[in-house]
Protein: Flagellar hook-associated protein FlgL
Organism: Sphingomonas tabacisoli
Amino acid sequence: MKIGTAYFFDSRNRQMADLSGLASKIQEQISTGKRILTPSDDPVVSARLARMATGASNDTQSASNVKLAQSLLGQGDTALESVANDLQRAQELLVRAGSDTLNDDNRAALAAELKSIVDNLYSTANTTDVRGTALFGGSGSGAAYTRAADGTISYAGEGEAPPIPIGNGVNVQATDSGARIFGNIQAGAGTKDVFQIVGDLAAALDVGGSATPAARQQALADASDGLKNALERVNTARASIGARGARLDIESERLSQAANDYQIDRGNLEGVDVQAAVTDLQKTMLTLQATQASFSKLSQLSLFDYIN
């Protein structure tokens, strides 16, 4: 059987091209540290890696949401701590206001500080979160509270803020509406918001605020009840924040571990054994060099010309 010169050259060229391509591929595997450079290298593993990458991307988004929720809960707890301190101070002033030794000027001084506490509460209730929205405004887009010209404070938010997704079908309520925390607090025979509770106490102590000592004592009793209930409401909200924060800590740890596991699994699936790859590269280069040398010698033999 005769072997044509063209066939001989073509087959040797293909062989050397294949060896050269294999050497280049092994070099790229070594430089990138990846065994799978294209899906065709291992379709089954490539498909698995694609699914893993999708899951890892979802976990990355969940981890980002967890951090946001943790930040919002932290802001909420800090704000409510300030509210609790203001309410405790109001309780201290209320106790002092019950003394029979106080005169009108003394009570007016207490009223002035209570009005300052109302200002503090209003400012805290209108805290904006890390996203620039009202921390206690629920799903509303503006300020949580507004203040009329006569000093009346009203809730301007809407409902509850939407929960933040932190996993597959798992959500967390990262903020609380001001209406739920600061409103509808039992104070005496009725309900008031926290601003009205403190504001009414200030008005009762101010000059001309109470028609009679009996009326003032009733105002103090209502304020005592309201402040106690308001402080309980705030402490309950802070306890809830603490529980949600603990849950987020667990979820954050899980996502961190999942990210670490993903990197390990991906490395095991697509990583290259550098030592083995270097050995394969050396073998491939030796084979290529031998083939090139053989081709060079054989192509120069007159026998081939004679055969053809």
Observations:
- The longest strand covers residues 164-167.
- The radius of gyration is 38 Å.
